[in-house]
């Protein structure tokens, strides 16, 4: 097993595979990677030596050790490590306390403890060490195979230890609970709940299993009252099902919610759910084009309908950066729209766009798809449906990955270029907070300002009479010059001229009483102003759309072609855990034996340049580091997916269906 810090990602990923023979693990070509020493096993963080001033040893506290441990568990990691330097008593307690050591190990590994686990802290700590060791060495605890039953599938998804798939006719949704021990026998189950006379097609699905035991299917069915061929022939619905029972979800007031009429029988769909908010991206044939919907799935209330220009959201997959922040890729304007989803109750402010973050400029290519992924996703309050495992990847510490596929304007396949962008979720939140701060000095120097036209309705619920807000918006213009003085978006919802309309739960019903449309401006931040220090790019080829579940927590998986046998591959994992990166950097500095600490962080602070092979029209720099591991064996995979405990290797038939699925379990 060979592991190093990956310095330059100019290698190519074929079908999600790094295929450059001088790849990111080649020691001789990239001396900055280190010495090739395997990454160290999980170990307690070392006390920081920066900004340390000696503190005279105080008089020992006469407190029970259990109480001192409790206090340490309330501190942040850095404070706990500094406390080791205070006196021998504190150091002894920290070193001997299993609960404190487990807390530090969780912080280092980027996981959160599951208080519902029946294991002791000692057992949890040992399980965490074994897990980290298995992922570092990429040596699975066991391997098994899932039967595919020779059923062609239109779509696969992976969530909460379950593999979901549609049958080729898009009539049934199947799922398989993935094995956690060699004795488990994976079985496929069918989710019912659409009724015996249902004649439509499933066009999309979304899950919030850990938070709500919820599976949402988006179905397209023939419209009932079509008068002529120029009218939309189909209707889109959300169907809300409780996974554990297969029945309609009991928390959903309307388990079947109408979204809109559709011209296409199979529009493009993407669904994401956090808390009460369900984000739905729909791309239909013109004149409908692309829309973003935000629903309160429990009440059926539509909080937002945003009309994007043309096909801006085609092949666009959004991601929740936090419970209230949604990132929506816009491929027409080459940017990431940032939407603030204010709490539904008290519903004082409807969802609204607050920022746009541009990708690197590309003049000679059209962005064909922008697919975001970030698991585990954030949650609003708790995850009551967590299984009794001792820990889970931390959402706050996880990475967000975005697959970008570029193509020539004449859509010739030979001119396609694809990339994977990786950013830490926490860094992305910091950037959003920084650029939406009113005191940011560069806000008014930005060259272009998108403007949205917004109408806010006050909607009375027909069942309980409560008044909620519903917004409709659309991008109306791009303005050059200084930031114009426009109405604050926060004032739109409280406009005294906004009347109350009485609408049914059918969210597609016409808007009868609306406020006067108002226009507000947005920040559009260029890539060079926000992206380089926090990002890492991979150049990829032939990215397979719909296979986006390749990351979890702070790792993402890929397959590397075996240069000596093209029918086989080697599995690889890129680890963006900052603690592991620093440990590898420390080993590299020790291996170089450069003496002293002078300039030891220079490598980490230096930006690298992506060799994008002409995909972008500007220099693309990147500063995020990672450690790459390769498995010792070889496999017969075409694709690989990843969840908290496993890698799933797929062998794909030329017709596009999965011939075999192998599970590699790491714990």
**Rg value:** 26 Å
How many β-strand runs?
A: 40
Q: How large is the count of helical segments?
A: 11
Task: Catalogue the unreliable spans.
Answer: 1-40, 490-512, 596-604
Largest sheet: 8 strands, mixed
Question: What global shape is seen?
Answer: globular
What oligomeric assembly is this protein in? single chain
State mean pLDDT (0 to 100 scale).
80
Core attributes:
alpha+beta; 40 strands; F-box-like_dom_sf; disordered N terminus; 667 residues; F-box domain-containing protein; 36% strand; F-box_dom; single chain
Describe what you observe in this structure.
The chain is α+β, with helices and mostly antiparallel strands. It has a domain at 65-118. Helix content is 14%, strand content 36%. It has 11 helices and 40 strands. Strand 18 (319-322) and strand 19 (325-330) form a beta hairpin. Helix 4 (98-109) packs parallel to helix 5 (121-137).
